[in-house]
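Recap from last week: sequence in, structure out.
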Amino acid sequence: MAADDERLVAGTSQPGRPRTDLFDRPAEVAGLTDDQAAAVAEARRLTAALGELHYDGTGLACIAGIGAAEAARRLEATVKVVDREEFLDQIDPFDQQSLAFVGVTDVPGGCVVTQPWGYMPTTPGATRRLSAGTLCYAMFANPKSGNQGVIVRDGQTVGGDHPGGTPWGDAGPVEVL
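Predicted structure tokens:
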């Protein structure tokens, strides 16, 4: 008996539809839908936007519809423009005072608050302020217990996840991608 590459598994995913740029696909077999291909392209764009990233211990929050200046205002932060590399060379990531420092940058569609050495962008206080009137996804790459994510809309936590974990059984292709 052959594998059924059109059988639905993991919700609405089909295992027989790999990216068409990786494999030759018979003409009669469906490839990714336009929505799925768009999700793959968006994932690549967002990964590139983050650039080279030292992952373990990093906290970040992605906020839709506001810029870096507004994020700084919401966090009641003192803004100081610094040379990133010089700053990272000077800061002691193990000093508790370093938790007071975050980086904020504009990205298409909003901004990202990041802390390469800590969890502060993911705290309830930060995400509540940052998500006022909009949507925020925050994630801490906890080197001890794994990645921890939270989805906050207009100050209210509406979901959480463990990125990179197994998808829920009813997760569709968009959620899996």
